[in-house]
Write a structure and sequence with these properties.
CATH architecture: 3-Layer(aba) Sandwich
Shape: globular
Number of strands: 12
CATH superfamily: Zn peptidases
Strand order of the largest sheet: 2-3-5-4-6-12-8-11
Number of helices: 8
Strand content: 15-25%
Length: 315
């Protein structure tokens, strides 16, 4: 199925003045239009609670977003051993990307026990709970957490995750960050971004299928292809557009593009893990169900960890 192209007649975003970045008034107006659409407590916290019987669960921070307070949870291997490498799994950095959250939880519930004694697991299944509830990309301050993983981060979600990871940062062997690319990227989030930054909105294409974002500075093509091969058994892999690109980036291998992760402040760049990737599931495809999307995320995590353990750190 071809990629989906946004409508070139997309109207001006309804907040702000074209060509002028948002100020406090525009951000306040944007915030006033956000509403809770689902429950972090019911969907996420309630699924984490039973895991305490098998794993160590910690609140590594909290978001004080008046009038709401959100605890940020991480799940660790109970049999943590300092001599073992660490596998880091993150989901829900963009709260609206549902299968990132539920795929991470599915991995812990169904597969994490398989790695006992082989690797230390550290899983943060929902990095952005405020955005999860509002099915949004940004936090309440109109900041994208997945462009904010840097020193003095303006995003509390990003800063809290970096503090969690810092003690084990040098020992992370593999990091897989779970995301989605949705039709709403073109209909809402990219137009909002352009309006917020006072830039023109340039329509793009939404790829139909699963793909990965490798690190342009430290590419691991065999690792990426191992994950693609595993996920291809669960859901379809995105094809390039007519220009050989996915979301504007050249396709370097089937289902794989590359970004400079650290330079862009992306979550997958927060460690020096030799194996790191960002997954992108397409939940709006007529060829994929929510179940397939969650399964694809969990499958990607398993494939990433298995490859990393089999190969070890590259020399």
């Amino acid at each position: 199925m071809p990629s989906r192209t946004s409508d070139p007649t997309t109207p001006t975003y309804p907040i702000g003045t074209p060509g002028r970045p948002w100020g406090a008034a525009e951000k306040a107006l944007w915030l006033s239009r956000q509403s809770r659409k689902r429950s972090y407590e019911e969907d996420v916290s309630s699924r984490i609670e039973p895991l305490r019987a098998r794993f160590d669960v910690e609140a590594y921070g909290r978001l004080d977003y008046h009038p709401d307070v959100y605890p940020l949870f991480a799940i660790r291997s109970r049999d943590w051993r300092d001599e073992l490498p660490v596998a880091l799994v993150t989901g829900g950095v963009h709260g609206y990307e549902t299968s990132g959250v539920h795929g991470a939880l599915r991995f812990v519930e169904a597969h994490a026990a398989d790695y006992a004694g082989r690797v230390n697991l550290l899983v943060a299944p929902c990095v952005s709970p405020w955005a999860y509830e509002r099915i949004h990309r940004w936090n309440m301050h109109a900041i994208d957490p997945n462009r904010s993983f840097r020193e003095d981060s303006p995003a509390a979600e990003s800063a809290a995750l970096m503090r969690l990871v810092t003690p084990v940062r040098e020992r992370v062997l593999v990091h897989i960050d779970l995301h989605e690319t949705t039709d709403s990227d073109e209909s809402e989030f990219r137009p909002a971004l352009a309006a917020r930054d006072g830039k023109p909105f340039e329509p793009g294409e939404i790829p139909d299928g699963f793909y990965l974002v490798d690190d342009a500075e430290h590419p691991q093509p065999e690792f990426q292809q191992a994950v693609i091969a595993a996920v291809a058994k669960v859901t379809h892999i995105a094809a390039p557009d007519a220009d050989g690109r996915i979301i504007g980036a050249p396709v370097v291998a089937p289902g794989v593009i590359r970004y400079p992760l650290r330079e862009l402040g992306l979550c997958a760049g927060i460690t020096r893990a030799p194996y790191r990737t960002t997954t992108e599931v397409y939940p709006d495809s007529p060829r994929a169900t929510p179940e397939q999307c969650n399964a694809a995320q969990a499958t990607a995590v398993c494939a990433a960890i298995e490859f990393a353990l089999a190969r070890g750190a590259p020399r």
